[in-house]
Amino acid sequence: MWEKIQSFFEVTTDIAIKLLALYGIWSIIRRIFIRPRLSVYLENNKTYHKVRDVDVNKMGNFVHVTVRNKGCLEAKNCQGSLINIEQIDSNDTFCSHPGFRGLVVLKWSGEGDFGPRNIGHKLSRELDVCYVHEGINTLHAFTQKFPRGIQTDFPPGTYRFTIMVSGENIRAITERYIIHWDGNWENLTIELGQ
């Protein structure tokens, strides 16, 4: 009888060890291959949105980047942030803008607030980056406007924005974009930066 009990415990222990090993392998596979993976890019038909802004009753040109979840699980509590703004100096090189100090949250397009959002498996969302209005000579980064000592409105020029998208269960991704604006509200452009 004792031998049967001992044999049962050995088999049970062996099964438990194999299950734990499988769980460990599954955990690694899930973390590497199945987890949410984001990409940030410019999508042809979603980058520019020219529309009348009812808040100021003027035409506006709004610029977006697309954030896509290429993974197999939902990306939770994703937040886009503007982490650096650079401008071209007299030597045609980018240098940090002196008025931009710190990280500011960007808004998800079509949302009423600046809160984080989930991005479903194989789905994408647009992140508002910047905008200009007809007749107003200011480039606005699409951030909350409250006094924090961080400049988010700029005159016409060429800027490089560094955008980071982070979340609860994802590896943060950072991309740079070059914003060109000559002062005409229709001539606001964005391209992938280096």
Name a few traits of the molecule:
elongated; Immunoglobulin-like; 194 residues; six-stranded antiparallel beta sheet; 13 strands
Write structural notes for this entry:
- There is one protein chain.
- The protein has two domains: 1-34; 36-192, Sandwich (Immunoglobulin-like), CATH 2.60.40.
- The longest helix is centred in the N-terminal third of the chain and has 33 residues, at 2-34.
- Strands 4, 5, 6, 7, 11, 12 and 13 form a seven-stranded antiparallel sheet that branches.
- It has 194 residues and is α+β, with helices and mostly antiparallel strands.
- β12 and β13 form a beta hairpin.
- The protein is elongated and about 90 Å long.
- The chain is built from one helix and 13 strands.
- The protein has one helix spanning 2-34; strands spanning 38-41, 48-53, 58-69, 75-88, 94-96, 104-105, 117-119, 124-133, 136-141, 153-154, 157-166, 173-181, 189-192.
- The chain starts with a helix and ends with a strand.
Instruction: Briefly note the CATH topology name of the largest domain.
Output: Immunoglobulin-like
Count of beta strands = 13
Task: Specify the biggest β-sheet.
Answer: 7 strands, antiparallel
Helix content: 10-25%
Structurally, the number of domains stands at 2
SSE order, one letter for each helix or strand:
HEEEEEEEEEEEEE
Summary of the model, kept short:
The protein has 194 residues and is α+β, with helices and mostly antiparallel strands.
